[in-house]
Amino acid sequence: MKKYYFDHVATNPLHPDVLEAMMPYLKEEFGNPLSVYEYGMRAKQAIEDARGNVAGLINSKPAEIIFTSSGAEANNFALRGIALARQNEGKHILVSRMEHHSILNSARFLEKSGFAVTYLPVDKKGFVDPDVVKKAITKETTLISVIHASSEVGTIEPIKEIVKVAKEKNISVHTDAVASTGNIPVDVKDLGVDLLSMAAHQFYGPKGAAALHVKQGTRIVPLIYGGIQESGRRAGTENVPAIVGMGKAAEMAVEKMRSRMDHLIPLRDRIIDTMSGTENVHLTGDREQRLPGHASFCVEYIEGEAMLLMLAAKGIFSASGSACSSKALKASPVLLSMGIPSSLAQGSIVFTLGEENTSEDVDYLLNEFPAVIKRLREISPYAQGWGDREEGGECTVKE
Amino acid sequence: MKFVENVKPDVTTDIVYMMCPMHLLKLEEQMKELDQGQILEIITDYDGALEDIPAWCEKTGNEFLGMEDVGDFFKFYIKKLKR
Q: Which residues pair with B42 in a beta bridge?
């Protein structure tokens, strides 16, 4: 049976050209970049070339890129590193309720360590309001972290406006741009952020390579102590093949960004337009300010897990909530924070497209998905409503 | 240890929170960029620099002007004497 992969926000396949660029560093080019002889020098040069390409992708400078092992590490590093570096100025940080667990759990760690954390509310489309940010700022606030684009609902946040508010008060701004970097134009100078996280496997690079952009002049406490790799800010022998792959994927993302977006947007819009017209199916997130390949819905009276399994049986691979929430089998905190009742949030489903998806793939999905909904609704005990399980108030995603 | 105040540096390098031995690598790198007679300021939180930076100056023939303790960090001042 043919497989249809619609879960590109979970991860992407490695591009063959990226693999080819990595191969020498998995074989004969095995040197440690810190070694002074030729093997080491070649490995070091490969990393610096990759750094240049990654910097180019986000209009950063090579010296502002710190390679990490994952987007989660970059997020942990940013939050803890800045909160600790600036703790003498204040011990209050702001994070939005749209954040990934790597931000939320880092914030919880900081709370336990004596910091105050304000969790910024969002509206029903998942937007953080810059005025709400302004009101949440105190004299103690040193850092604001807001996700650039949500992997769960696709909403792209008004980071530039949030930065404007923060800069009036000399507050550092971090954005988790893991889902957006490489998929839409991301420019650190235009956004004005001090720190930005990204991960290679979100743009056809390998797992195990990611980066944190740290604006020049920003002090940050390391997360991992050891040697002088990454200018003494992130110790550990570099994952040279993965970093080389990230550099190649970044170079390709710059070249192909426009054509990839032009390919994805019409496919996404067909899914959204068709499914939004289906009874009891609601789009989550904003219609316009969303990631190019991202179509997410809540389906009433059906559980997301059931949809995932039935779709998988048809060869369609998708997600419910975020990748982690889906495994944890609980309603996504992001959807709940948007005011979606937990009964409806249970029926979350996310389709994320990639460059290898075709119009025929979308035809297949749009043929099978309504049939899955119909079948599940027939056997759902809640087909007529959630009864006593319904929470007070009406569904906020209904227009 | 020599203590100084109000030194006007020509170049400042902030290596706060960067791991050892970045204080020596950055020192060497920055000193190469300086002209003879110019002053470098290094800001660091690494207490090993208290010994290392004066020792480096003596070894390389540059002048260690002194340091300033500003609470959380140390500021070191080095004058370039040799090319």
A: B13, B76
The DSSP secondary-structure symbol of A299 reads: E
Query: Per DSSP, which regions of A157-203 are E strands?
Result: 172-176, 195-199
Q: Which of A88, A226, A232 sits opposite B18 (nearest CB)?
A: A232
pTM above 0.90, yes or no: yes
User: Bridge-partner residues for A118, per DSSP?
Assistant: A94
What string of pLDDT tens digits covers the 399 residues of chain A?
999 999 999 999 999 999 999 999 999 999 999 999 999 999 999 999 999 999 999 999 999 999 999 999 999 999 999 999 999 999 999 999 999 999 999 999 999 999 999 999 999 999 999 999 999 999 999 999 999 999 999 999 999 999 999 999 999 999 999 999 999 999 999 999 999 999 999 999 999 999 999 999 999 999 999 999 999 999 999 999 999 999 999 999 999 999 999 999 999 999 999 999 898 999 999 999 999 999 999 999 888 989 999 999 999 999 987 444 555 556 788 999 999 998 899 899 999 999 999 999 999 999 999 999 999 988 877 666 655 554 443 434 433
- B14 to A233: CB separation less than 8 angstroms, yes or no: no
Q: Does the distance separating the beta carbons of B14 and A219 come in below 8 Å?
A: yes
d(CA A218, nearest CA chain B) in Å: 9
Nearest to A169 by CA among A198, A134, A193: A134
CA A119 → CA A47, A98, A99, A273, A302, distances in Å?
Answer: 37, 9, 10, 33, 30
Contacts of A255 by beta carbon, 8 Å cutoff, 6+ apart: none
| End-to-end alpha carbon distance in chain A | 39
Closest residue on chain A to B19 (Cα) = A232
- Chain B CB contacts of A231 below 8 Å: 18, 22
Reported ipTM: the value is 0.82
- Give the number of A-B residue pairs with CB atoms closer than 8 Å: 31
